[in-house]
Amino acid sequence: DAGITQxxxxxxxxxGTPVTLRCHQTENHxxxxxxxxxxxxxxxxxxxSYGVKDTDKGEVSDGYSVSRSxxxxxxxxxxxxxxxxxxVYFCAIGAFxxxxxxxxxxxxxxLTVL
Amino acid sequence: GEDVEQSLFLSxxxxxxxxxxxxxxxxxxxxxxxxxxxPGAGLQLLTYIFSNMDMKQDQRLTVLLxxxxxHLSLRIADTQTGDSAIYFCAVAMSDKLIFGTGTxxxxxx
Lengths: 114, 109
Prior knowledge:
The complex is a heterodimer. Chain A is mainly beta. Chain A contains no helices and 11 strands. In chain A, strands 2, 4, 5, 6, 9, 10 and 11 form a 7-stranded mixed β-sheet that branches. Chain A has a 4-stranded antiparallel β-sheet with strand order 1-3-8-7, with no helix packed on it. In chain B, the strands form 2 sheets. In chain B, strands 2, 4, 5, 9, 10 and 11 form a 6-stranded mixed β-sheet that branches. A 5-stranded antiparallel β-sheet of chain B has the order 1-3-8-7-6, with no helix packed on it. Chain B is globular, with a radius of gyration of 13 Å. By secondary structure, chain B is mainly β. Chain B is built from no helices and 11 strands. Chain B starts with a strand and ends with a strand. The chains are: A mainly beta, B mainly beta. The A-B interface holds A 4, 31, 33, 35, 40-45, 48, 50, 58-59, 90, 92, 94, 96, 99-108 and B 1, 4, 6, 8, 30-31, 33, 35, 40-45, 48, 50, 88, 92, 94-102.
């Protein structure tokens, strides 16, 4: 299994509070991604990174920011959490291989915003 | 942008074949993928197919690609209870993947 960990695995917070989720990899992959998974929507890309300090927006980036100061860590921040951000968040790492951009996923973080 | 569609549910009897379907809109996609998600876990890459291929077989898994109709399917032969999961198709757009909504496969005895 690809070496990807996410922390915390579960979090309950209140509306208006800041929240930071961490993704850590030991594979030295260049690409890292943050997705959210919601029923009926599948996985939607929030932000991704193609190198240290290089990030770009995904499909649902409003209300989220990211930072990548080291190859191994990719942080997702909700500056002021809202109930609509209750979701399961997945981090993925990616590398170009024989199968194109192959992505490998972490175990997920379940976030509940009350 | 790219749109990837899947039916939400599929129920099959153990030992039968399962066919999970996916349609997409952007014909420039180079690679197409199938991922499996078991309860409480992240997604696991099952297989992929390059866009110049029509079919790819990997043990019990067969992927069929119809580029003209922009249709991708995953066939699981001899479906087992351990195959119960959510299956996602995904299409590559440069360095990103666009995922479908996922199909929940339920296998009953």
